[in-house]
Write a structure and sequence with these properties.
Strand content: 25-35%
Largest sheet: 6 strands, parallel
Structural class: mainly beta
Low-confidence stretches: 1-19, 589-605, 651-685
Number of helices: 3
Radius of gyration: 42 Å
Distance between the termini: 104 Å
Strand order of the largest sheet: 5-7-9-11-13-15
């Protein structure tokens, strides 16, 4: 349709040239008139004030217009006033013109120069759109408003455009120049505090495809998308700039260097999104947040220097920065948002500062070169897919503050070993799916729920131990872990499982559970398919330690007349207990400040709770089954630690000594004998029960059952 209109206009022009000159005239405002002489193709406007009404004559008359004479005193150019004047060659406005309306010179394909008068404040939307021959533009000081698409599309602008300090608004696509000639166009940006027109954001940036931008020393802020998809290779921001807007320099595929000023405090979302030749960036002190998508897909980015003032990195801020190898997070960083470093495939190491308390979903997903991580105390959750597909990740140190490990958090990693936090209570779907190296998993006591596929595909896994509070294990949690030979559960009641929970785990695997729970596990259709020792065949000790107590459960021996528990702390005897054949306490020994030691009678049981232990302390024990003459029949040794102990036990659980050593009598100890309420002469017969605990009175002083004096 546009082609037909142009053809008609050209034909009319040819016809006119063969006729006599024609004079056209009319009114274009309350105090403005116009005259057009077809012979000299000059439109003369006379009068003062605002322009109004439609356009000058019909399209047939406008085809003649090559030159326009604007009177001083005229204050505006009306919308569409000169649209489709194909022969118009230039526009020079008087100083009195304040505004140019929307599409005022639309599709004036012959205009080569535009000179704005000193009084111009506003250039309307699409005012010079499709002026494809425009080569030179002079903007005046005092200009405040340039509408969206004002000089858009296929112009031949060259040289330099100076944007005045007074400019307050510039619209999307205002200078989106697609012609290859724009690669020689320089913009000098002096606008002190310009903002884009709200509500008009589109796909085309204000200075799209311009080759060079120089910022004046008075510039305070860089508007949203101002330099999006330009052809600039260098950006130097003056010390006056304090903010960079949304996608301000995004998709600059030639940008290699950016200098940020020390005055900068704010960076907008996607500010350097897809600047895929940018190799280094230094964020100045004073910036607190790296926003969403700020450096996303800067694929050549090798170096990032972050300020000490930084406290958070928002979602996808550095995702797909494929060249980034190292990152140092400042000590003040408290939060890493979702996808913050997703697919940084060259990233080998990152420090996590002590103040960090949150890491978002997929934050390090597909960081396939990451070797090890150590998270600080304060992190309470490993979110979904946080370290998923970190295929080189071999070592993970998790703090005890972690309560949940969510779905896929460490799937498809290469962990050599796995130590789970003591306070962990949930393991999510596929959290450790497809770990090919770990051979042992110990589930902490606080974990109540293990979800589906949590450890599925762990093809080297041989031993699994469940905590005493584990209540539910979903289907496929240990699917295809075909090398498992030993399963231990500390839970007194069999955790709820499904038929596919251990799909692929061989029935030949041994299942060890608390002595008193053997029957319950054996009756369960899933647990019961594994091999279990009979009660009379149990040959191991379990110890459940809390903050100051430890509950011992041991196998009975038909040939034993008594049992002895020796507990050691720092290589010295902490406590000696002698128990009868049915588990009743017969005597107790400790170093009291007097000449002999007190004892206590506690109700009989096949288990025994030792109280009065120290918090966060490691202990060793020897539990001996003794014959009538005191000779060891079986001896069990092991180590345990009360809650809060920071180290690891050197011995892996409880150990059965095949050839029991002879335990020599300790001449310094006073093993007290007696049964139930018939204490020996050495046992004081005064007992006190306070708050459910038994205390002993001896020579006027009170002691607990470990021999510690109660003041």
């Amino acid at each position: 349709m546009k082609t037909k209109v142009c053809i008609v206009l050209v034909c009319l022009a040819m016809m006119a040239s063969s006729m006599h000159a024609t004079v056209y005239n009319g009114v274009c405002g309350e105090h403005l008139t116009w005259t057009l002489n077809s012979e000299d193709s000059t439109l003369v406007i006379s009068g003062r004030g605002e322009m109004s009404g439609w356009t000058f004559g019909d399209y047939a008359s406008r085809v003649y217009i090559k030159h326009i004479v604007f009177p001083e005193g005229m204050t505006s150019v009306n919308g569409r006033a000169f649209s489709h004047c194909p022969a118009l060659e230039s526009v020079t406005l008087p100083d009195s013109v304040v505004s140019i309306g929307k599409m005022a010179f639309q599709s004036c394909i012959g205009i080569k120069e535009v000179h704005c008068g000193k009084g111009l404040k506003s250039i309307g939307d699409s005012a010079f759109i499709h002026c494809s021959s425009l080569e030179k533009l002079e903007l005046n000081d005092g200009l405040e408003y340039i509408g969206f698409y004002a000089f858009m599309q296929d112009t031949s602008l060259q040289g330099t455009i100076v944007f005045p300090e007074s400019l307050k608004y510039i619209g999307i696509g205002a200078f989106s120049v697609y012609s290859s000639k724009a690669r020689n166009l320089t913009a000098i940006w002096n606008a002190r505090n310009c903002k884009q027109i709200e509500g008009q954001k589109g796909w085309s940036a204000p200075l799209y495809c311009i080759s060079k931008i120089v910022f004046g020393e008075q510039v305070v802020s860089i508007p949203d998308q101002l330099c999006y998809a330009t052809y600039c290779d260098t950006i130097i921001l003056p010390e006056s700039v304090d903010s960079i807007g949304y996608q301000a320099f995004g998709s600059n595929h030639k940008l290699k260097y950016v200098k940020m000023p020390s005055s900068l405090t704010y960076i907008g979302q996607g500010a350097f999104y897809y600047c895929d030749q940018l190799s280094s960036i230094r964020i100045p002190e004073g910036v607190h947040v790296i926003p969403q998508n700020a450096f996303m897909s800067c694929q050549a980015l090798l170096e990032v220097v972050l300020p000490s003032t930084l406290d958070s990195i928002q979602s996808s801020a550095f995702s797909s920065c494929n060249a980034l190898q190292h990152i140092t997070l400042p000590s003040g960083v408290k939060f890493l948002d979702d996808n913050a470093f997703w697919s940084c495939s060259a990233l080998q190491d990152i420090n996590f500062p002590e103040g960090l308390n949150g890491i978002g979903k997929s934050a390090f997903r597909e960081c396939s070169s990451l070797l090890s991580i150590t998270l600080p105390e304060g992190v309470t959750s490993i979110r979904e897919y946080t370290f998923s597909n970190c295929s080189a990740l071999r070592k993970v140190n998790l703090p005890n503050s972690v309560r949940t490990i969510e779905g896929g958090a460490f799937q498809n990693c290469s962990l050599d070993t796995l130590v789970l936090p003591s306070e962990l209570n949930l393991i999510g779907n596929g959290a450790f799916f497809n770990q090919k190296k770990i051979t042992e998993v110990v589930i902490p006591d606080e974990v109540r729920h293990i979800r589906s596929n949590a450890f599925a595909g762990c093809s080297a896994l041989k031993e699994v131990q469940f905590g005493k509070k584990t209540a539910m294990i979903d289907a496929d949690a240990f699917k295809n872990d075909s090398l498992i030979t030993e399963i231990r559960s500390r839970a007194a009641y069999p955790p709820l499982v499904e038929s596919a929970t251990f799909a692929g785990v061989p029935d030949s695997a041994w299942l060890f559970v608390p002595v008193q729970s053997i029957a319950a596990y054996a009756e369960d259709p899933v647990w019961g398919r594994f091999r279990m020792p009979k009660e009379e065949e149990i040959n191991y000790v379990t110890v459940d330690a809390e903050e100051t107590t430890a509950n011992f459960v041991w196998p009975t021996d038909s040939t034993a007349s008594s049992y002895q528990i020796d507990i050691y702390k720092n290589g010295e005897v902490f406590c000696k207990l002698t128990l009868g054949k049915t588990g009743q306490l017969l005597g107790i020994s400790f170093n009291a400040p007097s000449r002999s030691n007190p004892g206590s009678i506690i109700p009989a049981s096949l288990s025994f709770m030792v109280t009065g232990l120290d918090e966060a302390t490691r202990y060793n024990y020897v539990l001996s089954a003794l014959s009538a003459n005191g000779t060891p029949v079986h001896v069990y040794t092991g180590a345990f630690a009360t809650m809060g102990y920071p180290g690891e036990l050197e011995e892996g659980g409880n150990e059965l000594i095949p050839t029991p050593p002879v335990i020599p009598n300790d001449p310094e100890s006073h093993i007290l004998t007696g049964v139930d309420n018939e204490p020996s002469d050495q046992v004081p017969n005064t007992k006190v029960i306070l708050n459910g605990q038994i205390y002993l009175m001896y020579e006027g002083r009170m002691y607990d059952v470990q021999g510690k004096r109660i003041e």
